[in-house]
Design a protein that fits this description.
This protein is an alpha+beta fold. Helices cover 27% and strands 28% of the residues.
Length: 119
């Protein structure tokens, strides 16, 4: 996926206390959903409705500036809802590492079902 919009830039806070996505965040969500749907279809993934799903995240930044990997996780998890899992409360996000790739900044996700503890 493209690098997500950070939480600091993803929402406009309204006077009534609610918040809405910025245009930039909406555009990112549409692109992320398109990619997730395509990849889920190619990999024969079926929407998980009851089990926990592990989402391993590897981030490739465009430069060496200091950033927080988790700052875009809300958008990532929301984008995968209804495609990878029914509800993102079942998503277990694991940040694995980060690197710099000036030519192709991105977020790579490895998604799999969490094994039951008893097994």
């Amino acid at each position: 996926l493209p690098i997500p919009v950070t939480s600091n830039h993803a929402y406009v806070h309204l006077r009534n206390g609610s918040k809405i996505l910025t245009k930039r965040a909406k555009d990112w969500m549409m692109e992320a959903e398109r990619i997730a749907k395509r990849d889920a279809k190619e990999q024969h993934w079926t929407l998980e409705e009851t089990r926990k799903v592990v989402v391993e995240v590897l981030t490739y930044w465009p430069d060496r500036r200091t950033r927080d990997c988790h700052n875009g996780s809300k958008l990532i998890m929301d984008a995968l809802e209804g495609i990878v899992y029914k509800d993102d409360k079942r998503a277990l996000v694991r940040y694995m590492d980060y690197e710099v790739d000036k030519e192709n900044p991105r977020v790579e996700l490895k998604i799999y079902l969490k094994e039951d503890e008893e097994k």
